[in-house]
Amino acid sequence: MKKAELVFIPAPGFSHLVSTFEFAKRLCDRDRRFSVTFLIMNSLLDPPAVSFIESQQQKQQIIKLINLPQPQPPPRHLKPYPEIYKFTHRENYKPLVKHLLSNMMLSTRSAYNSAPQIAGLVLDFFTAPMVDVGHELGLPSYLFSTSNLALLDLTIYFLTHPTHVKESDPELTLPSFVNSVPTSVLPAPVFSKEDGFVVTLKLAQKFMDMKGIIVNTFQELESYALLSFLDTKTPPVYPVGPVLGLSSSTEMVDSAQNEKIMKWLDHQPDSSVVFLCFGSMVKFGATQLREIGLGLESSGYRFLWAMGGDSINHHKDILQEGFLDRTAEKGMICRWAPQMEVLAHKAIGGFVSHCGWNSILESLWCGVPIVTWPIHAEQKLNAFKMVRELGLAVEMKSSEVNVDDLVMMADEIKEAISRVMDSDSEVRKRVQEMAENSKKAVMDGGSSHAYFARLIEDIIANI
């Protein structure tokens, strides 16, 4: 029986690591012929990612973790260009990765049939340039996209339309979208002609060099987009999602806080609580925090508000006077919450989210409708897709408005919460249908289960 080892080189961000680890574990559980090694770019890890990696090192038995040494830092003159700077920093890992892989391959050959053969590399959106190392060593590379087909399509679009875009440009016609896409929802880096746009083109070129593209989505969710990829010359696409870290969201929550949150939810009526959580990177200013508080209180709904960042340390001085006393029986504020566990609780009726792709998949899995509040990266594009393309979310404000420097006002927050908590809304019904589809997709006979099998066959066939 052929045994295959895959070497993962994930992006160092927390949200990327969570779903990539989950995919690797799912692969090993699905087919015992596979073993997995992760190469970790320690010097680029953000604080939540450091905590996650440390927890995996303590409990991980299936996946082998290797910490890469520190590479040569990028030249200082690149500092004004953050996307190029980060791209160069990752590029500087190439010699280290090549050296390590070469030694692994020599060790495998010397062991004859006792060790699995290295079957290829599994790369992230941001580590895609490592495909060059794979080519040099004769190893196929697969891209694991922790986001959706929409972002993949947008990135590849620029290969055939390599003209720098501006926010004032007309709407784009993208193959994977039914509607034309406003430039205002594109990720901010693409508007930087000498920085982000350059990196986007470089990444897109590397995507086309892959043996296959694995995507954390499922056919029933992005059926139109998937059909558009079948008609292109891109590498084969394998939608294998939803790939969810079903327990990973507890990593940043201590057990006492976790127990307190879940006990509070246990005492709330079914579908009565709106959950607010904006990821690990978002920090709102005092004005915005006060408006959220006003909107929550005036909506009249119960709420669980995970503030994140460091705002919880001084929220008593920021929120309007008497807010905590007036909402004591209806609301709970915490710093972190175990997101997946919270969304799965019967008390949760709506989710105000920054629209990270992991969060969207978790909410769909649990059948909880979203209020979209995109903040950065590709989140505006995700929100546009959920609201305009799929009808699976309520928007806080028109996605055609650049909200980077705006404050969402209390009335807007109240209105959006009221809409998402409507028990008879069409959005809620559609989300609950999609929840069933998401679970069927990964079951035996489901669409993602079948694509996963095809991916395994293709990898093994290339050994």
TrEMBL record:
Keyword Ubl conjugation included in the entry's annotation: no
Organism domain of life: Eukaryota
Name one molecular function that GO assigns to this entry: UDP-glucosyltransferase activity
Provide the alphabetized UniProt keywords.
Glycosyltransferase, Transferase
> What EC number(s) does its UniProt record assign?
2.4.1.-
Q: Which InterPro entries match?
A: UDP-glycosyltransf_plant, UDP_glucos_trans, UDP_glycos_trans_CS
Task: Kindly indicate whether the keyword Glycosyltransferase belongs to this entry.
Answer: yes
Cross-referenced CDD domains, in alphabetical order? GT1_Gtf-like
Pfam families recorded? UDPGT
UniProt lists the family membership as follows: Belongs to the UDP-glycosyltransferase family.
Protein name (record): Glycosyltransferase
Q: Which organism is it from?
A: Acer negundo
